[in-house]
Amino acid sequence: MRFGIHVGVGQGFRKALDEAQAAGCDCIQIFAGNPRAFKLGKYDAAEWAEFKRLREERDIRPVVIHTSYLINLATANPDLHAKSAALLAHDLSVAAKAGIEYVNTHLGSYVNQDRQIGFAQVCDTIARAIAQTPPGPMLLLENSAGAGSLCGGTLEELGAIVRAVDSPRVGVCIDTAHAWAAGYDLASEKGMKRFVDLLAQHIGLARVHALHVNDTQVQLGEKRDRHWHVGKGQIGSAGFRRLFAVKGLSHAAAICETPKTPELDRRNVATVKRLAGAKATRTARGTTVRKRPEHSGPKSGRKRA
Predict the structure, then answer these.
(1) What pLDDT, in 10s, does the model give residues 257-303?
(2) Is the peptide bond between 135 and the residue preceding it cis, with omega within 30 degrees of 0?
(3) Phi, psi torsion values for 281, nearest 5 degrees
(4) pTM of the entire predicted model
(5) How far from 161 is each of 100, 109, 124, 216, CA to CA, in Å?
(6) Which of 133, 130, 157, 129 has the alpha carbon at shortest distance from 143?
(7) Domains and CATH numbers, the chain
């Protein structure tokens, strides 16, 4: 398992990677454009090539592009749907050209759309995006907090989309704060076992390629998307330790989307690594990096939080 944060690239890729390394990251998530606009960014081949060179040099992998927050693949509004499909295809194309491994997207909301019609539309849009963009990156579908008519709030629905699209280039990103808000108890041993069993049944652990490791202060099942510092919220240290102990998820990239300052990023990454049972080493640049030993995992019985 590799660990990281979301970093901004507005001030250049080098600074973004410097920020990631200062926080102790070995993987990152970025936006490929403005996350709150429908504007398609211009692809600068030289800049993205330099980004690829820098991250290979620093062993930052994988990289996840998070699509715009405005994307809604389930909407009945034809203009909004067309813009959303175009943004999704744009980010997949950027990822393919830049050698980026994953594109992560929210699915949006049905609003007043019939759910069966909206579900079919989501699946069709994803299938078209995969078919019409260059091969390479995998598209990860993120679970939602389940509020109102949001798509993807249950593991059953998320798994049904994955099966309907039926492409090896489609996987899943599990956001822990969203799962908690949707009613999945990740804090207790019994609740985590049930969650992992459902994940394996409806999606398959091998399909989970990223984890958004976010704690939350909202109540279980409250269906509000509020992220908090790892181990400091309702899920707690024990919940995350149990999640990281699941062997079938050890391949997934663990990315924090917690409240940000350089110091808070460093603390959250350090906490995640500690809870995952990672071993600290020191790089030539003096940056702390932790690697999870292959022969042992985190011990769920630890009392220390």
Answers:
(1) 999 999 999 999 999 999 999 755 433 344 444 444 433 333 333 33
(2) no
(3) -135, 175
(4) 0.90
(5) 23, 14, 10, 26
(6) 157
(7) 2-291 (3.20.20.150)
